[in-house]
Write a structure and sequence with these properties.
Helices cover 67% and strands 0% of the residues. By secondary structure, the chain is mostly helical. Bound molecules: zinc ion. Zinc ion (ZN) is lined by residues 92, 94-95, 97, 112-113, 115-116.
Length: 123
Amino acid sequence: MPLTVKKHRANLDQLRAETEAAIAVMQKTYDELDPEEVASDVGAGEDEGGSEGDLTRFERDRLRARIAEEEAFLSVIDAAHKRAEGRNWKSCTRCGKPIGDDRLEALPATDLCVTCKADRGNW
Ligand SMILES: [Zn+2]
């Protein structure tokens, strides 16, 4: 069955909702990881107390990077939504060939055919 623009938009909406939910979960974890609190939990007078706080800081940095990635992905999804308003939403933005319904169904936010995507990976 060919992918309709209606279905494509629904796929993008679902992807956006999933991404937002993932961000919310990570943000919650991030907020719960308070390095000051963890450091103080270790207890006063404990000389090795710093390491757990450092681990928490590391984990927070990792989460913050993931959140930033997911937020960037939201704008990719929004761009795909905008493209879906035009006539060429099924075409690769680089070579103009069809992206393919199967690929768009699996990766609704993509704007490249599999060939161009592979090329980009080699940059
Ligand atoms: Zn292409």
